[in-house]
Amino acid sequence: MTHIIDGKKIALEILAELKPHIEQLKEIGITPKLVNIAYNPDSRSEMYIEMKRQQAEKIGIEYEYIDLSDTTQADCIQRMTLLANNNSVHGIIVQLPINDYDDPQSLLNIIPPSKDVDGLSDQSLLDLQHNQAKLQPATPLAIIELLKRSAVDLQGKKVAVIGQGKLVGKPLGYMLQNLNVDTLLADASTVDLAKITQQADIIISATGQPGLITADLVPQGSIIIDAGIAEVEGVAKGDVDFNDVKNKVNLISPVPGGVGPVTVAMLLSNVVTSAQKNIPDQ
Predict the structure, then answer these.
(1) Which of 44, 69, 135, 231 is most buried, judging by how many CB atoms fall within 10 Å of its CB?
(2) Which residues, 6 or more positions from 170, have their beta carbon under 8 angstroms from its beta carbon?
(3) What amino acid positions are annotated as catalytic residues?
(4) Where is 195: in which H helix or E strand?
(5) Do β-strands 62-67 and 91-94 pair in parallel, antiparallel, or remain unpaired?
(6) What is the average pLDDT score of the chain?
(7) DSSP state of 75
């Protein structure tokens, strides 16, 4: 029987667990604060921004949204630098995509690793590679949390990570390797995808290619985490052909309603972790 992971339910559990930690911080005068930066956001970005605001405010995290679209790029850098040095700010995210900006990565690299709740700066990725990350990136962290809360033990399993993008696949590969998990990696250059996926107990796909993962690629009784998302005729679609594979797997995350809600929850968890590390020595 196939079990479908309820990401919304898991996200609510995580958010509920964060509330007492936030209350404890407020008792000693620290209010966790998240700043969300945008530069020429599209309509999907605006939807995600609003989702983060609602969830943050619901559990008592201070949330500030700053749209820098009408400022010069030099002003953007100056504003980001001020936020990076502001001790009352515990998490900074730049909403992707960053449209019409000459060097988007240079903006992300201003975020110090201790506040990089999305884990997208070059330094954060390097720290993660060497198992020295101050914060784990939100989406890969959400994937691991989904599996954990679905009673999946990664030890002794082979995990295939499809897609090696900086947002999900690459950092997830580092995190799994840091946990000593047997990890198989595939990307756009992979010639025989089935050769990798057919070896795996768990397949995690994050390519943004709708319908990439079909039944012929999936071992019987495997576990599928769909971390890809793309819009097809106004509808959000994942990497996995859900109807094609659902009767072949034991556990699967849907799109939408799987990884996405838990990513927001883990992003906010990172903000709380950053605030906790900001408690002054007694």
Answers:
(1) 135
(2) 125, 164
(3) 52, 95, 118
(4) helix 193-197
(5) unpaired
(6) 95
(7) H
In a domain, 68, yes or no: yes
Contact 257, 6 (CB under 8 A): yes
* pLDDT class of 282 with cuts at 50, 70, 90: very low
Q: Is residue 265 part of a domain?
A: no
pTM of the model: 0.95
Instruction: List, for residues 166-217, the tens digit of each pLDDT value.
Output: 999 999 999 999 999 999 999 999 999 999 999 999 999 999 999 999 999 9
Whole domain around residue 142: which residue ranges?
138-260
User: Rounded distance, CA 143 to CA 154, Å?
Assistant: 12
Same domain flag for 237 and 142? yes
For the residues 242-263, what does the mean pLDDT come to? Answer: 96
CATH number at residue 229: 3.40.50.720
Rounded CA separation 56/63 (Å): 6
Per-residue pLDDT reduced to its tens digit, 3-29: 999 999 999 999 999 999 999 999 999
Cβ atoms within 10 A of the Cβ of 192, count?
Answer: 9
Q: Are 134 and 92 in contact (CB under 8 A)?
A: no
Tell how strand 91-94 and strand 235-237 pair up. unpaired
Residues 107, 142: one domain? Answer: no
Q: How far apart are CA 162 and CA 147, in angstroms?
A: 17
Task: Establish if 125 belongs to a structural domain.
Answer: no
Share of the chain above pLDDT 70, in %: 99
- Residue 179, in any domain of the structure: yes
Q: How many residues would you count in the chain?
A: 282
The pair of three-digit structure tokens given for residue 129, joined into one six-digit string: 């590679």
In angstroms, the CA 176 to CA 219 distance is 21
